[in-house]
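We modelled the chain as a single entity of 92 amino acids. Its sequence is:
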Amino acid sequence: MTDSGTIFFSKVNERERLIRGILNDVYTALSEKGYNPISQLVGYVMSGDPTYITNHNGARSMITRIERDEIVEELFNSYISNQMKDKKEPLK
């Protein structure tokens, strides 16, 4: 089979990119308003209450476009990937 030059994009990668972008934008908005972004995001993920997230720059609207379990999954993936990269050995 010859290479047609077609590039295929995975929907998973697009979804991950969307989630990362939203988390970055929400983190920035919370920081700009003087909140502790980690504390506010944890409050939102644990309770599901969107009032933990500021309306500044549309952050509340953005965060509600993704499911909380997707946020947790992305955070775990990122954390574990970074741990594996830094330590070059499995977590114990």
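As a brief sanity check on the tokenised model: The radius of gyration is 17 Å. Residues 83 and 89 are 9 Å apart (CA to CA).
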